[in-house]
From TrEMBL:
Transmembrane segments: 6-28
Class of enzymatic activity (EC top level): transferase
Origin species: Agromyces binzhouensis
GO MF terms, alphabetically ordered: phosphoprotein phosphatase activity; phosphorelay sensor kinase activity
Glycosyltransferase as UniProt keyword: no
Keyword Signal on entry: no
Biased composition, class Low complexity, residue ranges: 382-395
Protein name (database record): Sensor-like histidine kinase SenX3
A Pfam family reported for this protein in Swiss-Prot or TrEMBL: HATPase_c
Record-annotated Histidine kinase domain positions: 157-373
BP GO annotations: cellular response to phosphate starvation
EC number: 2.7.13.3
Record field: catalytic activity: ATP + protein L-histidine = ADP + protein N-phospho-L-histidine
Principal location class: membrane
Length: 416
């Protein structure tokens, strides 16, 4: 009897003890869930919808300055990298607003991309969003700042460069009038008149295109552009000319890289570089076009093994109307604006363009553009790991990368 009683007491004690632990664990779990609800960031209702319709680029930051929401415009401007603000100046503004509680509005100048010298003028407004979050809005004012300079440049360029073909057209018209009774002379002058008028139209078109590039921001369209498709389009536009000259254009472009910008403008820029390569290549030569992804950028390179460019010309090849060889460039139909258009297009996309060259060894033109930051998924924004946890990419030596992707290319005497 005593042993049975002892067993019942022990069993009852065990049941009570187990029930007690169950209650304690349940309460602890509820406390944890409650704490998680308090800690987890909650964006105020309507913020996502407002960011979708605002013309301004918008960014919402949590108390640790992690980016919770970023509009397509903010990503296109390069304001966000790895779910953090990409510029220390913006971080300082956010910190000031958190410290004082007062909204801030001012105009600042920031680099347009992670490399290169191009800048953008932004009208920035920063304010608290509730008690824990901060809202940053930015408008690109670069176009307004450039407008006066572009008008002056346009007038100067037109008056300077159009003098020669206009004078030629005038003289040829006079010659045709005086040779009215000589059909052979009339035909010869008429042919020359056609050449000069075509050149005049070409120069006018390129000056207008360059002025358009200087006057507006190519990224306002915020479209995702596939780099491989841009390369393919630019190469296809040059196939006929290359075939006529027997030049083989070898392409290695399987990067699947995407950038923000204007696809048509990027095609024009790359077309100019490839066209130059073909125009100044020897018959039966090769032009190499390669695309590689490195860190947060994509590089598009056009290489040749021609006679190269003299060191004194390297710093000036991207200037408007500058020609390394005036006579040869005019004979090939060059206006001296091709590389300037390339430069401004690339800068408008937050990138840079470089040239490597050695006399007797050849040249390589490389366009470098920032990769498009992928949109932050709303449901996964809070669960994203800190930027510091992302694996570091392995950098390669520039010469090694180019050698790996580009075939040998032919001679080119100068660039327009």
């Amino acid at each position: 009897m005593d042993s049975t009683w002892s067993v019942l007491v022990a069993l009852t004690f065990g049941i009570l003890l187990g029930a007690g632990f169950t209650v304690v664990l349940h309460m602890a779990e509820r406390r944890g869930q409650s704490a998680a609800r308090v800690v987890a960031p909650t964006i105020p209702d309507g913020v996502d919808q407002v960011l979708d319709v605002l013309e301004s680029a918008g960014v919402v930051l949590d108390p640790s300055n992690n980016v919770l929401r970023a509009s397509p415009g903010a990503l296109a401007m390069g304001l966000v990298r790895n779910q953090m603000l990409a510029h220390a100046e913006l971080v300082d503004l956010v910190s000031a607003v958190r410290r004082t509680g007062e909204p801030v509005a001012l105009e600042i100048e920031l680099p347009r991309g992670p490399f290169g010298d191009a800048t953008m003028q932004l009208q920035v407004r920063v304010a608290r969003l509730g008690t824990r979050f901060v809202l940053l809005l930015a408008d690109d004012r670069t176009e307004a700042h450039r407008l006066d300079e572009v008008r002056r440049d346009f007038i100067a360029n037109i008056s300077h460069e159009l003098k020669t073909p206009i004078a030629s057209v005038s003289l040829l018209a006079e010659a045709i009038d005086q040779a009215a009774d000589e059909p052979e002379q009339v035909r010869r002058f008429a042919d020359r008149l056609g050449v000069e008028s075509t050149r005049l139209a070409h120069i006018t078109g390129e000056v207008i295109e360059l002025s358009r590039l200087q006057a507006r921001d190519a990224l306002r369209r915020d479209e995702l552009v596939q780099v491989d498709r841009v390369v393919a389009a630019a190469v296809d536009q040059n196939r006929v000319v290359a075939a006529a000259k027997g030049v083989d254009v070898a392409v290695r472009a399987k990067s699947r890289a995407e950038v923000y910008g204007d696809e048509a403008l990027l095609v024009v820029a790359l077309h100019n570089l490839i066209s130059n390569a073909i125009a100044y290549s020897s018959e039966g030569g090769r032009v190499g076009v390669g695309v590689i992804v490195d860190d947060d950028a994509v590089e598009i390179s056009i290489a040749d093994q021609g006679i190269g460019i003299a060191p004194e010309d390297l710093d000036r090849v991207f200037e408007r109307f500058y020609r390394v060889d005036q006579a040869r460039s005019r004979n090939t139909g060059g206006s001296g604006l091709g590389l300037s258009i390339v430069k401004h297009t690339v800068q408008n996309h937050g990138g840079d363009v470089r040239v490597w060259s050695r006399p007797g060894r050849g040249s390589t033109f490389t366009i470098r553009l920032p990769l498009a930051e992928r949109p932050i998924a709303r449901e996964a924004a809070d669960a994203a790991p800190p930027a510091s946890e992302a694996p570091a990419p392995v950098a390669q030596d520039t010469k090694t990368r180019i050698a790996a992707v580009l075939p040998a290319a032919p001679s080119r005497g100068d660039r327009e």
